[in-house]
């Protein structure tokens, strides 16, 4: 019951600031609600000077929410399914090689480069930590956040192929990034000498292959039953069962839940809406999941802002966070450019594709959730604080400037 009250407060804050933003500021909704959460955090801390008990009460309630569990075990399944439901499979197939390579090889390159540079940065400033933990940071910060990226892309006027590259990559690299994180987490827990290469390969194949396979299986079962009825209430209920039942099954079988939801969403959003549903049912289903997406997105970004109160932060972390954000941006470009030029993918790209994908590669709640899932002995508080700083800078600076950035590149192309 406590969670219900906390979630109710978050939704009330979301509704108030969504209205204010739509009426006056017209910022991307995700960014506006993130700033709203930050503003509430600052106000509560300011009131804490007058009433320390009030601030302690708010912090205690926020700590009651396991952000990592709420996002990774609850919100993420709905958000990824809703996001993939709107992806055109035929257009995605045209960009399959860039999407697949960026979401796998790109994530691996980014994990290693970011982790290595982060390790040497901490050595340089006299705050060294184990290299394996730095790789964990590289793994959790490398995937772009599909929730943030898809929300911003709705307003950015970019070429269709480029939009598909970004949205497709962000949906898949999230699942792959979580698998890479789990693999390095196992190494950190057991020790590198106690882990065989075959174990990592088996884990990767099981998580990725099993996740996609399970998603397609669950999606096809839903498609089979949807095709035999025409009752939008029941078909919407079946889609809910796919998300909740499928994600729970993936967790039980140790498959990748995020990849399962992406695969199921793609199948139902394409084959299902075209061949198994009437136009009325498809319209109801699409609008239902759009609303789920908007509501959970609103709650998530307010919650990210409010997390400022419970993530331990010291002044020294500000500089580290700024430098690390620059490292993450540079590595993001390299992780796209290396496979693009190495495999000659760039020849099929629209102008400035890599630059736009770099600046549009926002980090979000998934990175924070993974950071908070670390064990205390893995320097969780420090890594969580730096992750939070990178995510905030990514969402605010990159998120607020991506549209003018794209417009400026377009003007340069015409000149």
Write the layout of secondary structure elements.
Blueprint (H helix, E strand, L loop, with lengths): L1 H24 L3 H20 L3 H13 L2 H19 L3 H6 L1 H29 L6 H11 L4 H8 L6 H31 L6 H30 L5 H22 L3 H20 L2 H28 L9 H27 L10 H7 L5 H8 L7 H35 L1
Characterization of the model:
α7 packs antiparallel against α9, α8 packs antiparallel against α9 and α16 packs antiparallel against α17 (380-414). The radius of gyration is 21 Å and the shape is globular. The protein has helices at 2-25, 29-48, 52-64, 67-85, 89-94, 96-124, 131-141, 146-153, 160-190, 197-226, 232-253, 257-276, 279-306, 316-342, 353-359, 365-372, 380-414. With 415 residues, it is mainly α.
Note the quaternary state here: single chain
Q: What is the CATH topology classification name?
A: Na+/H+ antiporter like fold
Structural class: mainly alpha
The CATH C-level name is Mainly Alpha
Distance between the termini: 60 Å
Number of helices: 17
Strands, total number? 0
Low-confidence stretches: none
From the alpha carbons, calculate the radius of gyration and give it in angstroms. 21 Å
Q: Residue share in helices?
A: over 70%
Q: What is the CATH architecture assignment?
A: Up-down Bundle
Domain module tally:
1
